[in-house]
C-alpha cells in the first residue's frame, strides 16, 4: 500500500484530517491518479499602457484615453479582477485536495515569488498569495524593487545572452513562411490602420500596414515599422476595454468594441510569435524558470534568487510574472492555446499551471492547464465559476497528449535548454 493510502486510512480511522492531506484527496481511490503538486505561472493584473499618453499621441497622431494610474501600473479594477482569479484558483485546488478547505495551509505548502522588475508583478504576487492562502498570512517574496530577476528574464539579469546569428536565422525561416501574410494578420493591420490613421500611409503619418522589419538594439531584436506599433496599439485598446472605460472612450467611439478586438489582436499575437515565442529568444530568457519548474515538480529543492529555498513540501507554487513569461514557457514546454471568449491568449490574470499527478502504479505524470477570464468577466469584474474553468493543454514533446511522463518532459525540456547555451 502506498504512503498516501496508509495516511488516509490512519487519518480516517482516527477521525482527524491534517491541512496537508485533505478529505478530498483521501477520497481518491486506488484506481485513480492523485494530484500532488501544482506550479502556477501567472500574468499580472490589468495595467495602464507602459508609455505615457503623450508618447502614444506622438506615435499615432491620436489622443488616447487618460488612465487613473501612471504608465505600467496596476489599476484598482485590475486588482479586483486578479483577486477574483486568485480566489477561483484557491477554490479549485481546495476541491482538488492540494489546499485545505478549512484553516490555514502550512507556510511551506504555498510559495509565491513575484518578478521584482515592476510594481505590477510584485503587487500581483501579494494579491495571489493572500487569495491562495484563503486570507491567511502568506508572503509573496521577490528581489528588491527594480532588480532584474533571472527567474523571469535570465537575459536581462545577465545570466544569459542572445545569439544574434541564431535569432536572425530563425526569423528568416518565420518570414519565409510568410506568417504576416496570413489573412487574420492582414485584416488586423488593415483594421488598425483604418481606426488609427486612415490616410497615414499616403500622407507620411503612421503606416501600420508597412512591411515589418527587425532591428538589433542593445543586444536584442526589436520589431520596426508597422507591426510594432500595431501590436502595441491593439493591446492598449484591449486594456482600455478591460479597464471598464465607457464605450465612447475606447477606439475613438468605434461601435462593437469586442468585435474590433477580435479583428485586431492577431497583430499582437503575430508580434509575440516573431519574438517572444522564437526558440532562440525563449530558451535563453526562460532557462532558469523552466529548470526551477522541473525541479519543483520532481520534488527537488529550488533555490530562489534571494537565497531562500522552495522545499519538497510545497504543494502550490506560483510565479507572478508577465505575458512574456507565459509566451516563453509556451515555447519551452511545447504548448499553445486560444480562447473563444478572449482574443488575447496572454490576457491579464491568465495563469498557466503544471500539475504533478501520481498514477496508481506510482508513475509521475504532468498535465499542463491554462486558466483565464473572458472579456466580459475582466471588464465587469464578474465572479468566476468553478466548473470547467481550466483548459487542459497538449504537450508537444509527448505526442501532444494531455498527460506527459515527468521523465519524458524533463528530458525534452532540458535538451532544449542545453541546445541554447547561456552564452
UniProtKB/TrEMBL annotation:
GO terms for molecular function: sugar-phosphatase activity. It comes from the Bacteria. Keywords: Hydrolase, Signal. The keyword Signal applies. Belongs to the histidine acid phosphatase family. PANTHER family: 2-PHOSPHOXYLOSE PHOSPHATASE 1 (PTHR11567:SF110), ACID PHOSPHATASE-RELATED (PTHR11567). This is Histidine-type phosphatase.
